[in-house]
Every structure is written in C-alpha cells, then in structure tokens.
Amino acid sequence: MGTRPSRQLETFPNPEPGRDYHVRIRVPEFTCLCPKTGQPDFATLHIDYVPDQTCIELKSLKLYVWSFREEGAFHEAVTNRILADLVAACAPRFMRVTAEFNVRGGIYTTVVAEHRASGWTPAPPVALP
Fold it and tell me: How big, in percent rounded to 5, are the helix, strand and coil portions of the chain?
C-alpha cells in the first residue's frame, strides 16, 4: 500500500462476525474544495458502523479521505459518496457517516447519511442504573 491518495478501500475479516459491535472512527482532517469558489472546506468525519463479514482497514481509509483534497464537492454529495463507497467496500450491517463542516460564510453544516442492511435490526438499548 502506498502513501499517496487513493480511492481503493481495503478490508480485513471481521474477528467477531457472530456479534454485533460498534466501530467508531473519527477523521478530524477531512478536506475538499468548495465547488463554487474553489476554496478549501474542512470537516471532521465521524464513521460509526456495525461490521458484518469485513472491517475497513484504517490506512486505506486515510488514503481514501486524502483523495478528496483537490476535489470540488457539495457537503451533501461528498458525505453520501463516502457512505456509498464505504458500504460498497465492507457491506456493514449498519453505517452512519456524519460530516461536521467548519464555518463557511458564517454557516456551519453537518450532514448525516445512514445505511442499514436489509433485514438487520439493532439490539434494544441497554439502560443501566
């Protein structure tokens, strides 16, 4: 695996495919370009997922995120594209991508996109005293 931007997402076998568990990834250095002005947009990505048979390999995720640095994209489009690419790579039971964009023109934008595998139902929440 190189150290250049790449759209190639790699996976590895889920070490516990019989159990639902939550993976939380925080990417504080996401950048892309405003498609109207060409100015950089900065965001923190939060990727939450319940893996099925495979998990996302983190170095490939880093290089994937880096690949957006010179690309113009609306916040809504890039968030949904990232979700679609991650789902295509690892086919999770559930995935949520939250993109918290820094201020642009006095406006903060947060975009949340979700995927839920057909037939998958989350366990009920556990309430502890």
Answer: 20, 40, 40
